């Protein structure tokens, strides 16, 4: 397992253990990260796991799918670096991944 760092809007950092092959959202839910509600359980339909992935990490992620883009179109606070954490499958290469809520 490796680390995923969640940064709250107030700057508070929470480091949790990610599991390879599981989503970043699943790690957040397992560790009770505030701000990740995951209402749809990871089916890419609610946007309640919306995070911002800065440029230094975004290049390591696969591109957004059409479904992810469509869900983000209905989310609040969407920017160019917006992703759904349910759609980010954790890999060893993402050890230390930083996501902003």
Automatic annotation (TrEMBL):
It comes from Duganella guangzhouensis. The keyword Thylakoid does not apply. Signal peptide: none annotated. Belongs to the adrenodoxin/putidaredoxin family. GO terms for biological process: P450-containing electron transport chain. GO terms for molecular function: 2 iron, 2 sulfur cluster binding; electron transfer activity; metal ion binding. PANTHER family: FERREDOXIN-2, MITOCHONDRIAL (PTHR23426:SF65), FERREDOXIN/ADRENODOXIN (PTHR23426). This is 2Fe-2S iron-sulfur cluster binding domain-containing protein. It comes from the Bacteria. InterPro entries: 2Fe-2S_ferredoxin-like_sf (IPR036010), 2Fe-2S_ferredoxin-type (IPR001041), Adrenodoxin-like (IPR001055), Beta-grasp_dom_sf (IPR012675). GO terms for cellular component: cytosol. Residues 2-101 form the 2Fe-2S ferredoxin-type domain. Keywords: 2Fe-2S, Iron, Iron-sulfur, Metal-binding. Its cofactor is [2Fe-2S] cluster.
């Amino acid at each position: 397992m490796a680390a995923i760092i969640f940064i709250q809007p107030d700057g508070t950092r929470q480091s949790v253990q990610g599991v390879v092959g599981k989503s970043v959202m699943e790690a957040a839910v397992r560790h009770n990260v505030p701000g990740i509600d995951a209402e749809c359980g990871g089916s890419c339909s609610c946007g309640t796991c919306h995070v911002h992935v800065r440029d230094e990490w975004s290049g390591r992620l696969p591109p957004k799918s059409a479904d992810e883009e469509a869900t983000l179109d209905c989310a609040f606070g969407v920017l160019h670096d917006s992703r759904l954490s349910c759609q980010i499958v954790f890999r060893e290469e993402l050890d230390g991944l930083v996501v902003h809520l």
